[in-house]
Write a structure and sequence with these properties.
165 residues; single chain; Jelly Rolls; 12% helix; mainly beta
Length: 165
Amino acid sequence: MEAGNMPQDKLMKEMIEANKKIKVAAVASGYPISASSEFDPDHSINRAIINCNKFRTGPTAWGASFCDQNQWVQVCLIKPKIVTGVALQGRANEDQWVTWYKVMYSIDGINWFYHESGKEYQGCYDRQTVIQHDFETPFKARSVRIVPTKWHGHVSTCFEVYFID
């Protein structure tokens, strides 16, 4: 009888272990964030937190100095973590949002690689909706960048990076 229950017991143990791993929102949790540029101090990277700008006056997202494909926002996870997904949101008080983007990652903060060979992910289509993308292939990284490739109005975004802790 016990032998017949072993696969069930093993499955239960695996499920318990999986539930111990908590999905963490890095940006909202206060991990260090940075950007390639900032339009001005009012459009700083500190404005890039999803759903946190509803009560602020002024710009409600990070805004890049330039509208080109050399712009990015990133979060540093301090030490390597398993990254499971990202989310983007537009600028709530203007028609500005990222419509397509790529994801880059680094283990050492120096050498950067495109996730899934530079695959483009579909971003936002309006100011308010949060678009979340869970990766089919999670990856290990210390730092993660969102690199806008197309945008509406201006390169502006709020973002989040999710990892398992």
